[in-house]
Amino acid sequence: MDKDLIKAIAQEIVSDTIFNNYQIYVVIIAISVISAAITSLVSSYYKKRGEDLATKANQQDIVAHLEVTTEAAEKVKAVVAKELQEQLGHKVLLREKLEAIFSHTFELELWLEKSRTEAFKKISPDINDSPLSKIEMYQAIYFCEVSEELKDLQGAYYPVLTFVLKIAMGQTGVEKSEVDEFTEVHTPFLGSLQNFRAALLQKYSPQAGL
C-alpha cells in the first residue's frame, strides 16, 4: 500500500472521519491489495518468461554447438578413415611386392644352379630367362633404398654367370680345378644375395606391416 495513503488514513482515524467514510477506504484498501497482487503476478510471469526464453536460447545454442561439433567430428573421422585406408592399401601392396622380390631372389639362386647343371651338358643358359631382371625391376619401382645392395648383387652375379658359360664352352678347369673356380665366384654371390635380402627386411618390413 502507498505510504501517502496510509498516512492519510491515519490522519482520518485521528480526526474520527474515517468511521463516517469507512466504505470508501475499504474499497481503496482492496484496490491497493489487488493491485499489489496483480503487480506481483505480472512480475513473476515476466521473470519466468524471461527464464524460459533464456533456457530455450541456451538449448538452441547447445544444439547448434553440438551440430557443429558433430559435423567437424565426422569430417575428421572421414579424413582419418581415408588415411588409414590408404596406409593399409600401401602396406598390403608393399607386402605383396616384398614377397615377390624375395621369391625372385630364391628363383635366381635356383636358376644359376640349374644353368650350371645344364652347362655340363654343353647347354648354355638363356640370359633373358634370368630372374635378376625381375629383381632389378621391383627394386627400381618399389625398393629404391636398396640400390647399393643391388649393385653388390649384380657385381657378384655376373662372375657366376660367366663361370657357367665357360662350363658350357668347356673352358673351365684349366688353371684351377672346377670346384675351386666355382667356390671363388659362388661364395661372394651367396653373401651378396643374403645381404640384399637382409636389407630388404630391415628397410621395408615396418612399412609392410611385418
Spell out the blueprint of helices and strands.
Elements: H1 3-15, H2 22-119, H3 132-142, H4 147-168, H5 178-204
Overview of the molecule:
This protein has 2 domains: 66 residues, no CATH class; 117 residues. Helix content is 81%, strand content 0%. It has 5 helices and no strands.
Indicate the overall shape: rod-shaped
Total separate domains: 2
Q: Which class best fits the helix and strand makeup?
A: mainly alpha
Instruction: Report the β-strand fraction as a percent range.
Output: under 5%
Low-pLDDT runs of 5+ residues are 16-20
Average predicted local confidence, pLDDT: 76
Major pleated sheet: none
What letter string, H or E per element, gives the SSE order?
HHHHH
The number of helices is 5
Alpha carbon gap, first and last residue = 90 Å
Number of strands: 0
Our Rg estimate from Cα atoms comes to 50 Å
Please estimate the helix content.
over 70%
Brief account:
By secondary structure, the protein is mostly helical. 81% of the residues lie in helices and 0% in strands. The protein has five helices and no strands.
Annotation keywords:
81% helix; mainly alpha; 210 residues; 0% strand; rod-shaped; 2 domains
